[in-house]
Amino acid sequence: MALGFLSRSPRRNWLKWGLLGVAVAGALGVLLLAQWGDGLAAWPTDKAPAGSVALAVVGDSNSQSFQDAVSFPPGSPERGGALRPHTFQWTEVLARLRGQELDSGPWVTCGRPGEVAWLRELIGLPGGRAPLKQDYLYNFANTGATCKNLMGEFTDSRFRQVPRLVNLMDRDPDRWRNGVVIIRISTNDMNIGVTDEASRNPDSPAVKRVVRNCLDDIGEAVALIHRHHPSTRIVLVGAFDYSNHAVNLEKWQSRTALDNIAKMADSFDDALQKMVAATPNTSFFSDRQWFRGFLGTRDADGKPAFRTLHIGPTLQVVHSLGDSPDHSMLADFHNGLVWNTLWAQAMAKHLHDVVKVPVAPISDEEVVRFIRSQTDAPSGASVRATGS
């Protein structure tokens, strides 16, 4: 029996078979995307602690949890090396010290490859978190993210964090009525190359374009969150001065270069503060101001003049690279245990004092106890910087 849709023309038959093949492949592709799981065997049913405030984070590797065994499998040199089980991100510190008051969601293995998430969204399905990682449910930060990854763009929407976070928030709008979203991003935008350009000319069109684009992305992210959840509080974290990164201390050793770099960071922070002044339920956290209180800065000639930080009676922390806790930064260039613990302490204070979240501030004694619990340091309860 002849197939009715085939004609006597071989060329037309090949065309019809080709179109049929494309249609079948497309249908199978849609079916595959629809069935592609997000790593969760079932939706988490963990109940949030009574009275806790939902806390979400978007950003880059400065916020992705270090204990993520999916992104950083055991034996990986990333995030603390052999000391990784005792090296925590600030988000992990907050969860351990204030997990009953700030709810970052359950610890889950969750997410899809960025390309899969994007294709699912093209056919009207939720993309979910991307990429696959092990982290708290409300933490959408991922290594390598830049400001464009907050909202995504036409040429690259694989890792669009905020629309996917909002989709998750929409599942429980009551939970987010008093919730908080922390946006901490820009380090990978104002990277070493951009910072070097700014050190010579902070008014360079290339530098201004990076700052402007990042601010536009953050503005769009804030607007989207508040369109869906207008009473959710949003914390905007300011720029980190790349000249203070431990790997860069031999660079830019002149007052002119450092002042020029500061002008770039000032333009970013000033714009964020204007955004906060014009936008209800937002606040600004100065990363540079915090760092100056943490380790200080360079001297008048641009030479390193950072403090030595004392944690308890024995642990002395210097601004350098290494996986042991006496270094401020890890060997892979990320912030270390002491840095992240003190940053978590500062963020808890900001949430309490500025955002008015009912979270108890983290005391210096708690900081020392937590760090000691990871370093087996002798007893003691002092956190001070030499000369302070």
Topology:
Elements: H1 10-35, E1 53-59, H2 90-98, E2 102-103, E3 107-110, H3 114-122, E4 133-136, H4 148-151, H5 161-169, E5 180-184, H6 192-200, H7 205-228, E6 233-237, H8 255-278, E7 282-285, H9 287-295, E8 296-298, E9 304-306, E10 309-311, E11 315-321, E12 327-329, H10 337-353, H11 364-375, E13 383-385
Parallel strand pairs: 1-2, 1-5, 5-6, 6-7, 11-12
Antiparallel strand pairs: 3-4, 8-9, 10-11, 10-13
Commentary on this structure:
Helix content is 39%, strand content 14%. The protein has 388 residues and is α/β, with parallel strands linked by helices. The protein has a single domain (47-299, 337-366), classed as Rossmann fold (3-Layer(aba) Sandwich), CATH 3.40.50.1110. It is globular. The model is unreliable at 22-26, 28-36 and 377-381 (pLDDT under 50).
Give a brief outline of the structure.
This protein is an alpha/beta fold and 388 residues long.
| Distinct helical segment count | 11
Count up the domains: 1
What topology, given as strand order, has the largest sheet?
2-1-5-6-7
In CATH terms, the superfamily is: SGNH hydrolase
State the helicity in percent bands: 25-40%
Order of helices and strands: HEHEEHEHHEHHEHEHEEEEEHHE
Envelope shape: globular
- The CATH topology name reads Rossmann fold
First CA to last CA: what distance? 93 Å
Structural class: alpha/beta
Q: Profile the largest sheet.
A: 5 strands, parallel
Computed Rg:
24 Å
Q: Please count the beta strands (DSSP E, at least 2 residues each).
A: 13
CATH class: Alpha Beta
Unreliable residue stretches:
22-26, 28-36, 377-381
Strand content: 5-15%
Which CATH architecture is right?
3-Layer(aba) Sandwich
Mean pLDDT: 87
